[in-house]
Amino acid sequence: MILVREKNGLRATVPCKVNLFLEVKGSRPDGYHELDTVMMALSLTDEIQLTRRDDSEIRLQIEFPEGAGIPLDGEDLAWSIPSGPTNLVVRGLHRLRQVLGKPNEGMDVVLKKRIPAMAGLGGGSADCAAALVLGALHWQNPFAFEPITSIASELGSDINFFIEAHRNGFWLARCSGRGEKIQPLACHRPLHFVIAHPPRGCGTKEVFDSLRNINETQEVSKRTPDDLIESLQRGDFKAIGGGLFNRLEDPAMRTTEWILSSRRQLDRYNHHGQSLSGSGSARFCLCESAEQAEKIAREIQQQGEMRAFSTSSWQSPGMAEQAKNIF
User: Fold this and answer.
1) Can you tell me the distance from the alpha carbon of 191 to that of 282, in angstroms, rounded to the nearest whole number?
2) 227 is in which domain, residue-wise?
3) Phi, psi of 131 (to 5 degrees)
């Protein structure tokens, strides 16, 4: 996340994420699942701007920059994003206002979307994280992160990652619990990826229901990301690619044929490995270079069946450092 102060407010550029590793350890009493996942932020970004209002309304306007927001077909819901009270950005700002005791403070929010929805890329969570940080910078004095991280853990599983995962310029972390417990990790070299997203998304509940059905008929050995984390620390492309894993791959494949189609599409290329991100439906592959990623993404995009993005590991200062510089 990159924060910028502007004449009329504050703006943030926020990355997406992919799950380099995702194991589902079991169900929790609260209805969620216990996860062990390694997430990395990538350079496919949204942009969000907050400006104070003179009244108490919180209004969200969603825009699509040139080249984004175009459905691939009539059933493509990647850009069907609500702007009302169900949007995580709006929910987050209402909750932040409540916690900070600012019930009469309003905000205009402009959100420029490039990260598709129903993809497993964390776009909604990233936008909410940015709204919480920017809202707190507007409404809280002195600024502190504790209310933000607490609200983030209330609202979703991935939001804390976009606030807390920074280490040495990289945004990479092992996340546990529902995903809200963050352990930043080290990676000493940039990584380059292609993200491929088909015209059908995956519903998270549907995928986890499918996982439960699989678990009722099969016994599986749980895996850990220890080897992958060591490979990331060494910057070993081949080992990183070999360590990519997502327990939700098979369940997601049962929900839409596009999961298998996109996997076969990426298999045509000579990359280091591929995997599903989150509960899907976006997939990603690890490339040798930015040039290779750009070539693969361009070729997939030209075929017109699915959208494709050339991305790299996201680098920026941590939130505490950036917040300090805003004032």
Assistant:
1) 18
2) 192-312
3) -65, -40
pLDDT tens by residue, 269-310 = 999 999 999 999 999 999 999 999 999 999 999 999 999 999
All residues at 6 or more sequence positions from 167 whose CB lies less than 8 Å from its CB, including other chains: 173, 184, 185, 186, 318
pTM of the model: 0.95
Overall domain count for the chain = 2
Q: Within this chain, do residues 169 and 54 fall inside the same structural domain, yes or no?
A: yes
Is residue 318 assigned to a domain?
A: no
Pairing outcome for strands 307-312 and 192-197? antiparallel
For residue 90, how many other CB atoms are within 10 A of its CB? 20
Alpha-carbon span 293 to 191, nearest angstrom: 10
> Out of 36, 76, 127, 158, which one is annotated catalytic?
158
Write down the catalytic residue from 17, 46, 112, 127.
17
Beta bridge partners of 284: 195, 275
Last residue of a domain, one of 166, 186, 206: 186
Dihedral in degrees, nearest 10, Cα atoms 233, 234, 235, 241: -90
Q: What angle do CA 52, 54, 60 make, to 5 degrees?
A: 50
The predicted-structure confidence for 109-165, as pLDDT tens digits, reads as follows 999 999 999 999 999 999 999 999 999 999 998 888 889 999 999 999 899 999 999
E strand map for the chain: 2-6, 9-27, 33-53, 58-63, 106-112, 166-167, 170-177, 181-184, 192-197, 245-246, 273-276, 283-287, 307-312
- Pair 34, 70 in one domain: yes
* Nearest alpha carbon to residue 114 among 257, 282, 292, 323: 282
Phi, psi angle pair for 162, to nearest 5° = -75, -10
Annotated active-site residue 17? The verdict is: yes
Which tokens belong to 95?
């909750």
Residue 151 φ then ψ, to 5°: -65, -40
